[in-house]
Amino acid sequence: MSIVRKKYESGDKMNILALTSVYPQPDDGETPATYTVQYFCEQWVKKGNNVIVIQNSSRFPKFFYKLSKKFEKKLAARLGFNVPKKESIKNIYRVENGVKIYRFPMKKIIPHSKFRKGEITRQVDIIVKTLKDNHFKPDIIISHWVNPQIDIIIKLKKFYNARTSLVFHNDCTKYNIEKLALKEKILNIDAIGCRSLKSSKDVQNLLNLKKEPFVCYSGVPDELAYKYKDKLPSKKKNSFIYVGRLVKYKNVDKILIALSRAFPQKNFELKVIGVGGELKSLINLSKSLNIEKNVCFLGQISRKEVFDFLSKAETFIMISNNETFGMVYLEAMAMGCITIASRNGGVDGIIKNGINGYLSEQGNENDLANVINIIKKLNNKEKENMQMNAVKTAIEFSDSKVSDKYLDNIKEW
């Protein structure tokens, strides 16, 4: 039996090192990074483990930040990711909710390119020194996003007798397989995960793995997951909501078009929460569809306010292209929303069509309009049954449950 398994099964504290490209930081600006890794780490600390996070972010040449400032919104809208701020090139150390968090930016010339070998070696030296200064010897090293994590974790494994894990975030592409020599390097990783069932099957085929990667689902905070387990919140009829970035691949424009078709009498309301480069074009689209009075763009608001709006909305919609796993789906379900998600996306297998939500073809406004028309025909009892099924599903994906499952998968894979 391995040291990790002995510690895990005996309930002893473990030292968990998390390597990630993305982690929420105070200087993220108006659009914070995804909370995926943060929630796992904080949950493990609550269980009594010691956790250190190393964020291996990218640091580009100075001219990049001058250019990106000018074209930031266009780049973000087209590429679907937040353009790094100049502030993000600084090292960070802070402690939040018991998690020690370090950010050590790594030099990179071109976005999405491979990090140079010398930069990888330099980063590993920094991490080893940081762990030594903290008297921290990891039992488990987890990593999210393949570049540069796979190269770093392989080198760290030579220093520590730790069990290693890598979770792909839709970045096991044919380009990365060749660029990063993934088929050879992945053999050095103990446990491999993906963010959705579909992605797991795809990665197994792409890398010729003998075993299907485990699915690393995000969780909903326990206090939210159980909030409406006994009684649903009051919902306004024909009220819809979208929460996420306003970028092209999120297909918010298709939501506007589908709602305008499903409600020719314009007897609906839509709350759009989020910011991004597509905001202006979406506002113009709502005007051209003559539904500007039905759509309210709320911008970036606090998480507390988001959950308040979700609890009042009848239906949540997000039909993004190639969504790995949108935690907001589960958050909406926890708030009792009838949830419409992308078919063949990250929540396939979690949302069961017509039982605890609906699936719609990615970016297809006609299919989405058909799904909305199905929901319109449901009576109150049918809606309540679906909403309660959604809440029950969210409970099964609470933070405490999925964080335990994550460690189980690493131990057993």
Verbal overview:
- With 413 residues, the chain is an alpha/beta fold.
- The protein folds into two domains: 3-219 and 399-412, 3-Layer(aba) Sandwich (Rossmann fold); 222-396, Rossmann fold (3-Layer(aba) Sandwich), CATH 3.40.50.
- Helix content is 42%, strand content 17%.
- The chain contains 16 helices and 16 strands.
- The protein has helices at 3-10, 36-46, 62-79, 117-133, 146-157, 174-179, 182-185, 197-206, 222-225, 252-262, 279-288, 303-312, 327-334, 365-377, 380-396, 399-412; strands at 15-20, 50-55, 58-59, 92-96, 99-103, 106-107, 140-144, 163-167, 191-194, 214-215, 239-243, 269-273, 295-299, 315-318, 338-342, 358-360.
- The protein has an eight-stranded mixed beta sheet with strand order 4-5-2-1-7-8-9-10, sandwiched between helices. The protein has a six-stranded parallel beta sheet with strand order 13-12-11-14-15-16, with helices on both faces.
- Strand 14 (315-318), helix 13 and strand 15 (338-342) form a beta-alpha-beta unit.
- Helix 2 (36-46) crosses helix 16 and helix 13 (327-334) crosses helix 15 (380-396).
- The chain starts with a helix and ends with a helix.
- The model has no long low-confidence stretch (mean pLDDT 91).
